Amino acid sequence: MSAHWQAWFFIGVVRFGLRPRDFWALSLSEWQALLSQLDPPGARPPARAELDRLRAEFPDTCPGTCPGTIKETSDGR
Of the residues 15, 25, 28, 52, which has the fewest C-beta atoms closer than 10 A? Predict the structure, then answer.
């Protein structure tokens, strides 16, 4: 199975909840109709101001030592 088919199969089964046999039974127009729901008309990426607000609200760093991280020693281990 090519990489494209694997990705499409994954979207069909995982994202849309199709059974494998139902995925393979779809016509091209049915598949295109499903895919159109992933990127509805008028959908746009967030503006810079919205991204900045989200970055401030959910920073990629945490104060002190982040949970689950390993603290390096002075000799680099």
Answer: 28
Sequence spans of domains, the chain: 1-41
Q: Which position has the token pair 């909840």?
A: 17
Tens of pLDDT, residue by residue over 4-59, are: 889 899 999 999 999 999 999 999 999 999 988 887 777 788 899 999 999 899 88
C-alpha of 24 from chain center: 23
Supply the pTM of this predicted model: 0.48
- The pLDDT tens digits of the residues spanning 58-76 come to 887 766 666 666 665 566 5
* C-alpha torsion angle, residues 50, 7, 29, 24 (rounded to 10): -150
Our CA angle for 38, 40, 45, nearest 5°, is: 90
